[in-house]
Specification:
Layout lengths: L1 H25 L4 E10 L5 E11 L3 E8 L7 E5 L2 E5 L7 E3 L12 H4 L4 H4 E8 L3 E8 L8 E7 L5 E7 L5 E12 L5 E9 L7 E11 L21
Antiparallel strand pairs: 1-2, 1-13, 2-3, 3-4, 4-5, 5-6, 7-8, 8-9, 9-10, 10-11, 11-12, 12-13
C-alpha cells in the first residue's frame, strides 16, 4: 500500500511539473505581449483587433485594445476566474464572464486572457504517442471555463499542438490548433498562431497571432479595478 501511494504521489508531482513546463514554454511568469485577434465569419467577412497584454504571476492579466479605433481604450482585467471590462464612455468596470467574448468570434474571454494551465487544471491521465504526449486535464473547480482538456504536446519542445475543450457533459466546445513556431527571444520558442473552430459556430473561425512577448515585471497595483482606466500606462 505504501509503495502504491508513493508511486501515485510521484506520478502527480511529475504530471504537475509537465504542465508547468508547458506554461513556461508559452509565456514567462510575468510578461507583456502584443497579439492580433481575427474573427472570420461564414461569408468571409473579417474583424481584426490589436491588443496589448500585461501578465503577472499565474493569475493576473490586463488587456488593452489598441485597434480598431472603435475599441481603442477599452481594457479588461482578469484576477483568477474574475473578469471585468472597462469602457471609457461608461467610466466604471463591468463584470464579464469567462464564457463571454468581448470581441465576438469563437475565442471567449478565458481564451483571450489565458492564465497558466497549471493554475486551472490538473493532469489526470498521460499517454505517450509516437511524436506527442496526450494529456487529459481536469479543471480544479467548476468556475473554470472548460471542465476537461485533451492536450497534444510535442515530445521534443513541450509546446501544445492541439487542445480539445469539453464541458462536464463531455460535449466538445472547440478545438485549438497551435501553429507556426517562432523564436520570441530569451530562449522562448513557441507557436505564434492559435486557430480555433467550434461545432457550435459552424463556418466561423478565429485566429490569435502573437507578435511580441517580452518578460517584464509589474506592480500588483497595476492589476486593480481602480487602475484599469490607466491600463495604457503599462506600455511605458
Amino acid at each position: 500500500m505504501k509503495l502504491l501511494m508513493f508511486i501515485l504521489t510521484c506520478s502527480i508531482v511529475l504530471s504537475a511539473g509537465i504542465l508547468e513546463d508547458i506554461d513556461r514554454k508559452l509565456t514567462p511568469v510575468s510578461a507583456q505581449m502584443y497579439k492580433k485577434l481575427i474573427n472570420i465569419e461564414p461569408d468571409g467577412e473579417r474583424k481584426e483587433f490589436l491588443l496589448f497584454q500585461a501578465k503577472k504571476d499565474k493569475d493576473k492579466m490586463v488587456s488593452l485594445f489598441l485597434e480598431p479605433d472603435s475599441e481603442k481604450g477599452r481594457a479588461t482585467l482578469r484576477l483568477g476566474e474574475n473578469m471585468w471590462l472597462y469602457i471609457p464612455n461608461v467610466g466604471r468596470p463591468i463584470r464579464i464572464t469567462s464564457m463571454q467574448s468581448v470581441v465576438g468570434g469563437v475565442f471567449n474571454n478565458a481564451d483571450i486572457m489565458r492564465l497558466d494551465f497549471s493554475t486551472e487544471y490538473s493532469v489526470v491521465k498521460e499517454d505517450e504517442k509516437d511524436t506527442y504526449l496526450l494529456l487529459e486535464l481536469k479543471a480544479k473547480n467548476d468556475t473554470v471555463s472548460y471542465d476537461k482538456l485533451l492536450m497534444q504536446v510535442d515530445k521534443k519542445t513541450l509546446a501544445p499542438i492541439q487542445i480539445e475543450c469539453y464541458t462536464s457533459t463531455k460535449m466538445l466546445i472547440k478545438t485549438l490548433y497551435y501553429k507556426k513556431p517562432k523564436d520570441f527571444g530569451d530562449g522562448m520558442v513557441r507557436p505564434s498562431v492559435v486557430e480555433t473552430m467550434s461545432p457550435l459556430y459552424k463556418g466561423y473561425k478565429s485566429i490569435m497571432i502573437y507578435g511580441k512577448i517580452t518578460p517584464k515585471e509589474f506592480s500588483d497595483e497595476a492589476f486593480t479595478l481602480d487602475n484599469l482606466s490607466e491600463a495604457s500606462s503599462l506600455r511605458r
